[in-house]
Amino acid sequence: MTGPVDLAAVLSRIDRPWQPRTVAVLNDYDVRVVRTHGEFTRHSHPETDEVFLVLSGSLTIRMDDGDVALGPGQLYVVPRGTPHQPFSPDGAEVLLVEPSATVNTGDSPGELTAERRLA
Amino acid sequence: MTGPVDLAAVLSRIDRPWQPRTVAVLNDYDVRVVRTHGEFTRHSHPETDEVFLVLSGSLTIRMDDGDVALGPGQLYVVPRGTPHQPFSPDGAEVLLVEPSATVNTGDSPGELTAERRLA
């Protein structure tokens, strides 16, 4: 991961939704890309904020005080400890920024829990 | 900065190149957008890596061991302490991820040094 990374090339190699790939490591943080489709696990990250940036498609982040609808080029920060449920009926490509230790399903592990995987 | 942020809307309000705007705060990190045009100050950040993601246009990062050429959707991490000079003769829109304390010109302050500014 020392050269430039083409996000579209990495995304094209991902065959399943909700399985992030780490495309950059910045100190102890990761930049990840993920393909979303359908409904993800409702969860929170007690120890960190989480950045979502939609690259293509559309993503809704369901939160207790309302839905956040994101399209291409739109970004949102889910505050630490805040329950959220990504929902993407039509699919999206999303960039995430979070500490490298962050697990995708946070405090609600299950079948969608993914191991950290470098692109 | 609690709602969704539209990167294009923020970028459209930036009237000068090399003046980043912080569009998201993630723990003690910033996500910033910047319009690049021309040649920036050669500098390094002794305390941190720095992520560059080109959103549109083209950006070259001149480094001692060669140039890194980035187009839309391409990302590069400049390692901490590594001299680099962004160069963008045709202009670009770029997303940066770095600690909130990071100053754009790093160890080489000058007329292009920008104060941290929230979008």
TrEMBL record, chains A, B:
InterPro entries per UniProt: Cupin_2, PKS_Associated_Protein, RmlC-like_jellyroll, RmlC_Cupin_sf
Keyword tags: Isomerase
Example of a GO MF term: isomerase activity
Residues in domain Cupin type-2?
Answer: 36-94
Q: Which CDD domains match?
A: cupin_YdbB-like
Positions the record marks as coiled coil are none
The record's listing under SUPFAM superfamilies reads: RmlC-like cupins
- UniProt keyword Hydrolase, yes or no: no
Protein's UniProt name: Mannose-6-phosphate isomerase, cupin superfamily
Which organism does this record belong to?
Geodermatophilus siccatus
